[in-house]
Design brief:
With about 325 residues, this protein is of the alpha+beta class. The chain is built from 8 helices and 14 strands. It is about 25% helix and about 20% strand.
Length: about 325
């Protein structure tokens, strides 16, 4: 099977009939794999290159310098996380060695006026521990965060049409999203790692959707097919890889699937020992957004599989399972 590529600009300039047709295609994809590439997305090249270069230069710094912006304690969501601090497979109940990666993580750029919920303030709205170097890191990061926040909002309009809802259905849920941006660095390896230790262990994402920018030409990202086999996700030039998360699967009563995925160590001749980088934006509805089964995902008389949850506390519970 070829990897599906969705043209966002074509969707946005289509009439209602065209949008519904493209929406049906997205619905089919999200029922089977939940992964697709989005091209003609409108995020400026200079915004992408700016954050990519600054993240690369940050990871080039020595450990002592990077650790000055490290998360202050296990479970703190933002700042630098060094190697050996996370095992994503633990979120699925699988005990594995730590993932072979390091990351820098940042949350929402501002706290909503009047917010007093202490869990929200101490978790999703916790302070990002900004690095002092390289120069320009924070402005480049924030420019990209704003751009992909807007992109996520536009993709949610596609999802609404795909789910036979009004195009703006989700907008009231994402006025102040609690999304996180993560820059990931998979360091160069001197030798293949022990069996069972991956770049990123098998996991599903937690929220509504993820916007991934992989290293151009890189290999190793794999998804589990409905048949139970691992399948490579090829990088698509000029496109983001989009996948849905657990919250969206729950929201759709499992009409859409949150697919298990991982980053494996490919053969050395395929670049398996090389350093690689990626940017992952985890889009999450507002802290107090009430997530209950969408009306178009229930047949007459059908009962939802899931109780309603609030977006923020649901995310917090998921995140805490991965902390070493």
């Amino acid at each position: 099977m070829s990897f599906p590529v969705f043209d966002l600009a074509a969707f946005e300039r289509s009439d209602d009939n065209g949008k519904r047709q493209m929406g049906r295609e997205v619905d089919l994809i999200c029922r089977t794999s939940g992964f697709l590439a989005v091209q003609n997305h409108g995020v400026p090249d200079d915004v992408i290159s700016g954050v990519w270069t600054h993240a690369h230069d940050f990871f080039d710094l020595d450990h002592e310098t990077k650790n000055r912006s490290k998360a202050p304690y296990p479970g703190y969501p933002y700042g630098y996380l060094g190697p050996g601090t996370e095992a994503l497979a633990k979120s699925k109940g699988v005990d594995t060695p730590p993932d072979l990666k390091e990351s820098f993580n940042g949350g929402p750029l501002a706290v909503p006026p009047g917010l007093t919920d202490q869990e929200a303030l101490s978790f999703c709205y916790a302070e990002t521990i900004w690095p002092a170097a390289p120069d320009g890191f924070r402005p480049a990061w924030e420019a990209y965060y704003r751009a992909v926040t807007d992109l996520a909002s536009r993709i949610m309009k596609v999802f609404a049409v795909a789910l036979e809802l009004k195009e703006d259905y989700f907008q009231s849920y994402i006025g102040q999203p609690i999304s996180a941006l993560r820059a990931l660095n998979y360091p160069e390896l001197a030798a293949p790692p022990p069996g069972g230790q991956l770049r990123a262990g098998a996991h599903t994402d937690y929220g509504s959707l993820t916007i991934l920018l992989p290293q151009p030409g890189s290999k190793g990202l794999e998804i589990m097919t409905p048949e139970g086999a691992w399948r490579e996700v090829p990088p698509v030039e000029g496109a983001f890889v989009i996948n849905i998360g657990d919250l969206m699967a729950r929201w759709t009563n499992d009409r859409w699937v949150s697919t298990l995925h991982r980053v494996v160590n490919v053969a050395p001749e395929d670049g398996g020992l090389d350093r690689r980088q990626s940017l992952a934006f985890f889009h999450q509805p507002d802290w107090f957004a009430n997530i209950e089964t969408l009306p178009s995902c229930l047949a007459p008389g059908e009962v939802s599989k899931y109780e309603p949850v609030l977006s923020g506390p649901y995310l917090m519970g998921k995140f805490k399972k991965t902390v070493m």
